[in-house]
Amino acid sequence: MLSLTPSHIIEYLYCPRFTFFEYVLTIPQHEEHNYKVMKGREVHDQKLEQNKNYLRKRIGATDKFLDQYLTNDLIRGRIDEVLVLGDGTMAPLDYKFALYEDKIYETYQTQLYCYAWLIEETFGKKVEKGYLVYTRSQHKLVEISITESNKQDVKDAAEKIREIIEENIYPKATKFKARCVNCTYRNICTQ
Length: 191
Ligand code: SF4
Prior knowledge:
Elements: H1 6-14, H2 16-24, H3 46-59, E1 61-71, E2 76-85, E3 90-96, H4 106-123, E4 129-134, E5 140-145, H5 148-167
Parallel strand pairs: 3-4
Antiparallel strand pairs: 1-2, 2-3, 4-5
Helix pairs in contact: 1-2, 1-4, 1-5, 2-5, 4-5
The structure holds iron/sulfur cluster.
């Protein structure tokens, strides 16, 4: 079984058929889709380096684990920072080399939910929130709450992806028909 990344989960949640076309029929999608997880670790931002301690202090972190590559039976992920909070819970923190646009993209949230799952399994601690830092908006810090059902949703998605790939299941189309208009697969997809 292929080890899934948060991007696989994000694609599945966008449309379950993406998983089928891409990983069962192995037809690649075009790269321009905007749900792809944007990273950009290569950007070295000196001001950000200076700000990191300040940000962790503001959060109330008592300890930190940097650049953590975590895996479990289904998914893997690379987390910029895993923070230990004052109440003994843990939280992922992810730097986005992006501007804050007054809304939190679902893709960013899904990514944090996947990280929460990985952290809970690896460290044996509860994760109830995560943090995003928008480095192009003066390092704006945003707290995202993470519920049990958020974590369960990504676990369920990962399990469904496993089924689609291992059992060649043709999944249901997305409920959002607008997504089909510019879809790479619209010519081969029976909607
Ligand atoms: S055409 Fe629509 S249902 Fe089919 S893969 Fe694309 S988004 Fe999903």
